[in-house]
Amino acid sequence: MRYEFKDGLEFVRSLDKSDKLFNLRNRFYLKPDEIYMDGNSLGLSSKDAEKALLKAFDVWRKEAIKIWGAEDGYYFNLSKKIAEKLKSLINADAEEIVVLGSITTNIHQALTTFYKPTKEKYKIIVDELNFPTDIYAAKSIIELKGYNVGDVLVEVKSRDKRTIKEEDIISKMTDDVALILLPSVLYRSAQLLDMELITKEAHKRGIIIGWDLAHSMGSVPHDFKKINPDFAVWCSYKYLNAGPGATAGMYINKKHFNKSVGLKGWFGSKDESQFLMSHDFDQDKDANGWLQGTHNIFSMAPLDGALDIFNEVGISNIRQKSLHITAYLMYLIDNKLTKYGYIISNPREDHRRGGHVCLEHEEAYRISLALRDNNIIPDYREPNAIRLAPVALYVSYEEVYHLVDILEKIIISKEYEKYSLNKVTVL
After folding, report:
1. Which of 196, 245, 362, 425 stands 20 to 30 A from 23 (CA)?
2. Rounded to 5°, angle at Cα 205 from 252 and 148
3. Is the full-model pTM beyond 0.90?
4. What CATH architecture does domain 51-312 belong to?
């Protein structure tokens, strides 16, 4: 889509004035002197999440063990309750969604269920730009099956070290491939892959395919009725704003409900047999069969509350603003910053990018440190990228405008030079 933008505070303030989501900022704990651009790494705390967490604590305080039956079993069935709120974000049935574990443990759960290598089909396709935990999980399951990683793992290479071509993925779908695990959005460059095309091509060849939605869930709407993946996993602490280490989620296509789950646990039992204490696993009839241990209520409750905003506003409206505000950020970068060596390395087209802008510079690390001392929170990624996420629910256009001004000031004044090149662990 072509956007008509202008420079100047008058224009940017008119954008905020016409922004239908602007007042949602009031439901988040924003610092008045800080611009937060790191919601693609850890979303801000919301008042909705806080309310839900404090309520859960209060119910536990009052009810103790009776919390599981309180409010008609609300907390005992919390995964199902949250699934009802999540289903519109990916256009899936609630029975295909479960809330459990972390994104890493959920990848392990999916791979142990779906990776059934044979002599003819045993390879796993990944991409070389994916987040490391996905690759660790894939290598783990290969080793557990007794295979050599080098013989099984197929890495799709990037032509530019930033993005992956869909045709390069498809070209690796040979007859010996059993499973594919890919990110919906590449965590560094924000590239949004054509999930429907890739999934269709995988299924043509009898290949199981799963998607990691870590960098799209809550930012990009997905239509799983159309895409039809076999499984998907995601975390809840980025765009979903559920808090650090919040309980993650998993999608299991209903066509696989009859599969025996790889990692069994007692919460995966049918309701009527869970408390019979039989050592014979009686797997639940839908995605709830993939549940394992008792719900982490204090990790799930904030997610329960945080999702209320998404259901009120609608993911399509969130995506519309996300595309518009990231486009405006790129417009300002093009007009003010490229002359100083800044490079936009994410795809420009709306249909090919997620919710953040990837800004490269040879001094990206030290610029990130300078940004923090200017009360702007970015996200740095090796070797030279500053990820900037103007999250639609709580970042204003005027904040984006000031961000670019400060990026310019840091370069002109050479403010970054006062920082050491010795890198800290977390930034």
Report:
1. 245
2. 80
3. yes
4. 3-Layer(aba) Sandwich (3.40)
